[in-house]
């Protein structure tokens, strides 16, 4: 069985996505992580295009990779130039990588209208450039740019371009759907025709402008391609590149084709999140295989079936790709969802009346604007509060917030001051405190902590890490119900809580109080 080669271009093609800019150190870290994943080839960048990539290749000489080979990327020589004197080709050789990927035009229209040279000169550019790099002892991959579009416009010229590349010694000819508009059935047919035309191995490089880059990559393999190029998380220009995080498990688990080991596959989710962190991009929750929602279930019937048979609503075991199952509790849930979620969260909950009572409470609260899908700490508190012997670590008595606009001395203009006063009860003692803050929510947070740290000094560790407000009924204007979601951390763990009210301050107050109560309960501190 032919082993499929995995070629990653996150550090070049992926970096062309809006908002992504890897530092040299970021790129070195990603190379190490992709090597752990078991990829065959990692494209480091274009050494002739910018100083950062040139510096990267200098530092990459010290990398000791276990499975991957580092590749430098560049283009064919310039029209009517000599390959040996071309600065771009010289930079590729100087990069010191064992593999070079060379891009050249495989579309006659691209040659005449973009390169502004003749079709014959373009073929000479391909032949000369590959021949020069092969003379230096390098492995050369040829990216046949715009191949599929070029094939549809002028089949003979597109085939001639890849045939010249193969005859010049290219170790693999990569068929590129550069504009990302090809459909899988077209890709399959054209790859089969290309196989008949050239003797060298073929690869596929698909873009996702028609949202079928993964499908095109998989069907190209089925049609005979032995190398797949793509990026982690599908990063790339416009709509992105073929997503290796979907391609890899599909090849291995669905098509039964060897590419990486089982152990390496189990790191896939970790690698996906690691790269997104360095790219400063939020992970996509609904991304197949590696997203946090990829194996998350909400419907009551689904969760009931899942409790009896884990594969009932999952196409693979999520642990195979380093992910895990999850259950969301909402107004769509059944008793089974509540029980499953409680068990998942490590909370004791008996069947029957107790679970039904919690489910009824969830449905009631969601009708009032609460939502527990992204506020699992508030859901945990629902379970705690359903216990007949539950005693909260503190009770809210009341609060008041004053926002005042004060005039400073003439030279300083005006300032806005927020002050919150809170009353909380701990045991039999009522504490009444006040605090100023940078806005009403900050003032509330500080006043509540000021009251509670007298009894629970360790609360000083807890801080807010995120604060989100959603208006639930925009047509109601300033009277609309709002939902506040608060994320908190103690430096080691994070948790989220929710509050809802037609008053944004009250909604914030409820979410804040849940956050502190949850943390105290998880630490075993209650009155």
Features of the shown structure:
3-stranded antiparallel sheet; 3 domains; TIM Barrel; Double Stranded RNA Binding Domain; 527 residues; alpha/beta
Summarize the structure in words.
With 527 residues, the protein is an alpha/beta fold. The chain has three domains: 5-278, Alpha-Beta Barrel (TIM Barrel); 296-367, no CATH class; 395-522, Alpha-isopropylmalate synthase LeuA, regulatory domain (Double Stranded RNA Binding Domain), CATH 3.30.160. 39% of the residues lie in helices and 21% in strands. The chain is built from 18 helices and 16 strands. The chain has helices at residues 24-37, 51-60, 87-94, 108-115, 119-135, 147-153, 155-167, 184-197, 213-223, 244-254, 262-265, 268-278, 300-308, 335-344, 353-367, 376-386, 440-452, 504-522, and strands spanning 5-8, 41-45, 69-75, 99-105, 139-145, 172-177, 202-206, 227-230, 296-297, 326-327, 395-407, 414-426, 429-437, 463-471, 482-489, 494-501. The strands form four sheets. An eight-stranded parallel beta barrel has the order 1-2-3-4-5-6-7-8, surrounded by nine helices. Strands 11-12-13 form a three-stranded antiparallel sheet, covered by helices on one side.
């Amino acid at each position: 069985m032919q082993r499929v080669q995995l070629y990653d271009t996150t550090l070049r093609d992926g970096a062309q996505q809006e908002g992504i800019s890897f530092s040299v150190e970021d790129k070195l870290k990603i190379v190490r992580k992709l090597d752990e994943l078991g990829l065959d080839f990692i494209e480091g960048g274009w050494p002739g295009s910018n100083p950062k990539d040139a510096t990267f290749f200098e530092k990459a000489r010290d990398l000791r990779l276990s499975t991957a080979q580092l590749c430098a990327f560049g283009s064919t020589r310039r029209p009517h130039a000599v390959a040996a004197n071309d600065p771009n080709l010289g930079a590729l050789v100087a990069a010191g990588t064992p593999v070079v990927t060379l891009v050249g035009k495989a579309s006659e229209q691209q040659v005449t209208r973009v390169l502004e040279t003749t079709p014959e000169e373009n073929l000479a550019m391909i032949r000369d450039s590959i021949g020069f790099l092969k003379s230096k002892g390098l492995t050369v991959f040829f990216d046949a740019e715009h191949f599929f579009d070029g094939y549809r416009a002028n089949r003979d010229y597109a085939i001639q371009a890849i045939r010249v590349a193969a005859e010049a010694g290219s170790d693999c000819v990569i068929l590129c759907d550069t504009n990302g508009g090809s459909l899988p059935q077209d890709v399959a047919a054209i790859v089969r025709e290309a196989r008949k035309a050239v003797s060298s191995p073929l690869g596929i490089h698909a873009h996702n402008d028609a949202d079928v880059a993964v499908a095109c990559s998989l069907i190209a393999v089925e049609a005979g391609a032995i190398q797949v190029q793509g990026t982690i998380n599908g990063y790339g220009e416009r709509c992105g590149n073929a997503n290796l995080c979907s391609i890899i498990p599909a090849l291995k688990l669905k098509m039964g084709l060897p590419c990486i080991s089982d152990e390496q596959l189990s790191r896939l989710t970790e690698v996906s999140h690691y790269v997104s962190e360095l790219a400063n991009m939020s992970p996509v929750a609904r991304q197949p295989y590696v997203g946090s929602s990829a194996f998350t279930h909400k419907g009551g019937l689904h969760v009931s079936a899942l409790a009896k048979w884990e594969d009932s609503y999952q196409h693979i075991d999520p642990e195979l790709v380093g992910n895990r199952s999850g259950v969301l509790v909402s107004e769509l849930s059944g008793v089974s969802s509540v029980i499953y979620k409680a068990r998942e969260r490590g909370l004791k909950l008996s069947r029957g009346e107790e679970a039904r009572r919690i489910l009824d409470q969830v449905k009631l609260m969601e009708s009032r604007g609460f939502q527990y899908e992204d506020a699992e700490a508030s859901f945990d508190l629902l379970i705690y509060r359903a216990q007949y012997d539950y005693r909260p670590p503190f009770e809210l008595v009341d609060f008041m917030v004053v926002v005042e606009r004060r005039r400073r001395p003439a030279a300083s203009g005006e300032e806005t001051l927020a002050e919150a006063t809170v009353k909380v009860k701990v045991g039999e003692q009522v504490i009444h405190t006040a605090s100023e803050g940078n806005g009403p929510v900050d003032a509330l947070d500080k006043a509540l902590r000021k009251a509670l740290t007298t009894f629970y000094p360790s609360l000083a560790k807890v801080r807010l890490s995120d604060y989100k407000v959603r208006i639930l009924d925009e047509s109601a204007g300033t009277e609309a119900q709002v939902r506040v979601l608060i994320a908190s951390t103690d430096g080691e763990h994070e948790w989220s809580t929710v509050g809802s009210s037609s008053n944004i301050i009250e909604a914030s107050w409820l979410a804040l109080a849940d956050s502190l109560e949850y943390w105290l309960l998880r630490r075993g501190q209650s009155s």
